[in-house]
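Key result, reporting period 2: structure in, sequence out.
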């Protein structure tokens, strides 16, 4: 996941900037809704044509390495764009200035940082990383008519809200859950599965979709267990799951919890294959 996010960041920034230029200058407010508050003018540095691009993600906490990957991707894109002469917006060429924020993968911090970005006058934003932070922040961005592109939020709800300012560059959980179920039924030849999730919008959403498609493919779901995204000891859950003897254990969560879970499965002598989504696709989980 990390390397893809870095590769996608230039596309996300360019798209966000272009969409912002259109949405703030050309798109009329829907007739059935109140017009949004006037968006702040693009912030410019004294004596130069510079606009602010925002990035928000978890820069501290258990998955800070993923948030930093996103931030580094956005920073690399800004540096490359500026080195190439900037971005053409209408008849003006502007340089970009990256403004970053830390949402700590927490929804409350996510909305606080989102409002701060709006108040600072960023013209477009890359973020957030987690579905749980992106969904509440997206309402604020919509109200401010501020386009944002998430590199990694996969919850179905995010784009079902209908906000014209919300975009992403990855597949939704319904597509990913179906792909995971197909892999379990196909190459893994699983007949039975146990499902565990971390109760976040991402983890639970992905697990729900996997469970639905697993049943459609004729696999037996022998158990559904829950943890949280701060947990580190899964022995009680895994001991219960071990007694069910599933061919596959599907986990909806991030790498910071999937790593310890995989280790504890091995320590308990479990023969089940651990299967998870893009949230665990990082060198750190290994």
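The corresponding designed sequence is given below.
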């Amino acid at each position: 996941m990390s390397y893809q996010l870095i590769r996608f960041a230039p596309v996300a920034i360019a798209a966000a900037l272009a969409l912002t230029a259109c949405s703030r200058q050309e798109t009329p407010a829907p007739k059935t809704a109140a017009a949004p508050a006037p968006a702040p003018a693009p912030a410019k540095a004294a004596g130069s044509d510079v606009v602010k691009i925002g990035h928000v993600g978890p820069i501290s906490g258990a998955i800070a390495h993923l948030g930093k990957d996103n931030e580094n991707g956005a920073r690399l894109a800004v540096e490359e764009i500026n080195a190439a002469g900037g971005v053409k917006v209408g008849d003006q060429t502007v340089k970009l200035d990256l403004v970053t924020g830390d949402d700590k993968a927490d929804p409350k911090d996510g909305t606080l940082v989102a409002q701060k970005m709006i108040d600072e006058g960023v013209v477009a934003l890359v973020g957030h990383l987690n579905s749980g932070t992106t969904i509440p922040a997206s309402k604020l961005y919509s109200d401010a008519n501020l386009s944002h592109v998430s590199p990694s939020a996969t919850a179905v709800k995010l784009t079902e809200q209908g906000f014209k300012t919300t975009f992403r560059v990855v597949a939704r959980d319904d597509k990913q859950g179906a792909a995971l179920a197909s892999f379990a039924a196909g190459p893994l030849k699983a007949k039975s599965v146990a499902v565990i999730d971390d109760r976040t919008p991402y983890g639970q959403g992905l697990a729900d979709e996997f469970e639905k498609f697993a049943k459609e493919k004729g696999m037996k779901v022998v158990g559904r267990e829950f943890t949280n995204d701060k947990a580190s000891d899964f022995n009680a859950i895994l001991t219960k799951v071990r007694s069910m003897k599933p061919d596959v254990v599907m986990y909806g969560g991030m790498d910071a919890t999937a790593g310890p879970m995989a280790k504890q499965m091995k320590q308990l002598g479990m023969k089940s294959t651990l299967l998870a989504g893009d949230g665990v696709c990082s060198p750190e989980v290994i």
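The first strand starts at residue 50 and ends at 57. The mean pLDDT is 87. This case is discussed further under Risks and Mitigation.
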